[in-house]
Amino acid sequence: MMLLAGIMGAARRGFHSDAIDGTRFPQAHTLEINLRYNTNTTEQLLLLAIILPALAVTLPHHRLVLVPAIAALFVFGRITFWIGYHYRPMARTFGMALTAIPILLSFSWLLVTALR
What is the mean pLDDT of the segment spanning 30-50? Predict the structure, then answer.
């Protein structure tokens, strides 16, 4: 849903006169931010699609609540990343941390579990 929201936001913005030229680096700064958000969300979503099923089959039963918690953090992180990016590029840091840290910790846990 977060990627679809970004694609729709970029598509809607792409019909404005300062962005309709179709170049990779449009004159419209907001469209460029939306395109960068979409690229980053695609990358993060690929990682999430790898870790969530892996966690679902390797976590102890009483820890499975972490799977929907990580998914919720992903959604909240993407929203705050996108809003922050439009406000000021450094303001996207909080959202990026909410997205990336659970993914990094999950990959680390899966690696340690696999090496045992």
Answer: 88
Q: What is the pLDDT of residue 17?
A: 52
Token pair of 33 as six digits: 């931010």
Phi and psi torsions of 65, nearest 5°: -60, -20
Distance of CA 110 to the CA centre of its chain: 20
Helices (H), the chain: 2-13, 29-58, 66-87, 93-115
Give 92's DSSP letter.
G
User: CB within 8 A of 35, min separation 6: which ones?
Assistant: 10, 24, 26
3-state secondary structure of 21: coil
20 alpha carbon, distance to own chain's centre: 26
Structure tokens at 1: 């849903």
Burial class from Cβ neighbours inside 10 Å (0-12, 13-18, 19+) for residue 26 reads buried
Q: Give 61's DSSP letter.
A: G
